[in-house]
Design goal:
This protein has helices at about 5-15, 25-30, 40-45, 60-70, 125-135, 150-155, 165, 190-195, 230-240, 255-265, 280-295, 305-310, 340-350, 380-390, 390-400, 415-420, 420-435, 455-465, 465-480, 480-490, and strands spanning about 20, 50-55, 75-80, 95-100, 105-110, 115-120, 135-140, 175-180, 185-190, 205-215, 220-225, 245-250, 270-280, 300, 325-335, 355-360, 365-375, 405. The protein is of the alpha+beta class. Among the domains are: about 105-215, 2-Layer Sandwich (Uridine Diphospho-n-acetylenolpyruvylglucosamine Reductase, domain 3); about 220-400, FAD-linked oxidase, cap domain/gating helix (Vanillyl-alcohol Oxidase, Chain A, domain 3), CATH 3.40.462.40. The strands form four sheets. Strands 5, 6, 7, 8, 9 and 10 form a six-stranded antiparallel beta sheet that branches. A four-stranded mixed beta sheet has the order 1-2-4-3. The longest helix has 14 residues, at about 60-70. The chain starts with a helix and ends in a 5-residue tail after the last helix. The model has no long low-confidence stretch (mean pLDDT about 95). Bound molecules: flavin-adenine dinucleotide (FAD). Flavin-adenine dinucleotide binds next to β3, α6 and β10.
């Protein structure tokens, strides 16, 4: 329990208006996009939850907060928009949640030297729209950009999204970052040292400002194709991705049918619907047009207006159909482009009998990020727990396809050893210790899995086989005092602070 004197001292730093200990606020800040995880399940994770929320106005205030927390060993959870579904913003060890969304200024747009200087709490869509107005284009940016913040996307690695197939991941566009370190020091990085902070998931420092490269915008053409059967759709996806479009994404039939139903649309449904956008001069676009027409000859081509409409929806499509659930199980993972066909075939088997869909986004190094979404209803505990267990199957599927989970956070931290060689894991842990020796920044996440993988695998097996019994077990566990749950977790794992 955070002592009142700490809260009073934080008030001194950010001002009374920008601090909250209100019960409802604390509850909201103890959830993220995956908040429809049932409470019993969250409690069995032993989460303490937010004890105080602060909304600092600048890097100076963040520096004072971190220096204070470091001195008093208080956990810090950094939060952008909370749109990442891997539990990265869940305050597992209690303490302070730092909401970065008041760092909301675009500080400079330099058209001569082609960069933008922006604070970490700004939403990506604002930057994309401003660049467009000035005749520029932003490189990688997330399809959640209507809410996702500059800092959140950088912290999660920016390894999938719009613009990525043409310009590479967000790390390639970062020229410099302003970062507050765990002890309160403020540093400014060069492109090389920025890489420590791209993808560290809030464990090495808090990004407060970024200088990002932007690119001249020559013009754009949009396409939308429906392809049957799925195997052919994937074959054409591979061909067209090799042309490095600015945007390439597909929806499978299941996802499009859910969107049609939820929105009352009548978009023609195919096994695979591919949306594309290419940037180029008029001459370049004419050449691209010829190649694209050749690749998709004989497929259903939507007219350009429909393709543009689909492009406009790119920031909204993700959860447009959630209400059909009304809950949603979503899991993202990365697979090589060459394994997409087999992955979709196996998904049919895993999700057989359920209503599900998949959406893709271009990932780094010719990979595809597949977002698998399964309709669920958290009011039906047994059904929900059974579907929750798919996370284990999807993780295993990604591994089988030479892919990987897309990010670690809280839920995927158990996969760290699958992603890296033991030497690299040891190095990552060493770097973390070097930057944050007291372990205040996002403890129990990323390189600090709190429960061993074998235990999770076993739990998933029971969730699938006997969800009703697991439901009762979770109810019992949730009723235990939190100290007892955390004591139990400490016995089976070592990630708890
Ligand atoms: C519909 C939809 C579409 C999506 N599309 C994409 C996509 O195209 N590409 C993609 O990569 N992801 C995508 N995501 C996932 C998510 O939106 C992104 O990862 C997003 O960039 C997270 O930003 P955020 O501001 O919400 O971060 P949060 O969820 O608030 O935080 C994410 C992590 O970053 C840390 N963090 C946040 N801000 C900072 C900071 N300033 N300094 C240090 N650490 C920080 C947090 O502690 C946490 O661990 C999508 C999600 C949804 C719901």
């Amino acid at each position: 329990m955070l002592e009142q004197r700490h809260i009073d001292n934080l008030k001194e730093i950010v001002g009374e208006k920008w601090l909250s200990t209100d019960e409802f606020d604390l509850l909201c800040y103890s959830r993220d996009l995956a908040s429809s995880i049932p409470d019993d399940l969250l409690k069995s994770y032993g989460m303490i939850g937010a004890e105080v929320v602060v909304l600092p106005q600048d890097a100076g205030q963040i520096s004072r907060i971190l220096a204070y927390a470091n001195r008093h060993d208080i956990a810090i959870t950094t939060r952008g928009a909370g749109s990442w579904a891997l539990g990265g913003t869940l305050p597992m060890e209690g303490g302070i949640v730092i909401d970065t969304t008041k760092l909301d200024k675009i500080l400079e747009f330099n058209t001569d030297d082609e960069y933008i200087r922006v604070q970490a709490g700004v939403e990506w869509k604002r930057v994309v729209d401003m660049a467009q107005k000035k005749g520029f284009v932003v490189g990688a940016n997330p399809s959640s950009g209507a809410s996702a913040t500059i800092g959140g996307y950088i912290a999660t690695g920016g390894g999938a999204g719009i613009g990525l197939t043409e310009y590479g991941s967000v790390g390639n566009q970062v020229l410099s970052l302003k970062v507050v370190l765990a002890d309160g020091r403020i540093v400014e990085t060069d492109p090389w040292s920025s890489h420590y902070f791209v993808g560290n998931e809030g464990t090495l420092g808090i990004v407060t400002e970024a200088i990002l490269k932007v690119f001249p915008f020559p013009g754009r053409k949009h396409y939308l194709f429906g392809v049957d059967p799925m195997e052919k759709g994937v074959e054409l996806l591979v061909k067209v991705t090799a042309m490095r479009p600015y945007y390439v994404s597909f929806l499978n039939r299941g996802l499009l049918s859910m969107i049609n139903e939820a929105k009352g649309h009548h978009t023609k449904e195919s096994d695979i619907t591919i949306s594309l956008a290419f940037n180029g001069t008029e001459k370049q676009l004419a050449k691209i047009d010829k190649q694209v027409e050749e690749i998709f000859a004989g497929c259903h081509k939507f007219d350009e207006e429909e393709a543009k409409e689909e492009w406009k929806e790119r920031y909204r499509i993700g959860l447009a159909f959630k209400k059909l659930g009304p809950s949603l199980m979503a899991q993202d993972f990365r697979v090589p482009l060459g394994s997409v066909k087999e992955t979709l075939q196996e998904l049919e088997l895993i999700c057989e009998g359920d209503r599900w869909g998949a959406e893709s986004l271009g990932g780094e190094n010719d990979s595809v990020i597949l977002a698998v979404m399964i309709l669920a209803d958290e009011r039906d505990s047994a059904d929900y727990i059974r579907k929750f267990s798919y996370a284990g199957d999807l993780g295993a599927l990604a591994k089988k396809m030479n892919g990987a989970p897309f990010g670690l956070g809280l839920h995927n931290a158990i996969h760290l050893d699958d992603l890296y060689e033991p030497k690299a894991v040891a190095q990552l842990k060493k770097i973390r210790k070097h930057f944050d020796p007291v372990n205040i920044l996002n403890p129990s996440k990323t390189t600090q899995a709190r429960i061993p993988q074998e235990f999770i695998n076993l739990s998933m097996m029971f969730m699938r086989g006997i969800p009703e019994v697991v439901g009762l077990g979770l109810k019992f566990a949730a009723a235990l005092p939190i100290e007892l749950t955390r004591f139990g977790l400490r016995i089976i794992g070592d990630g708890i602070k």
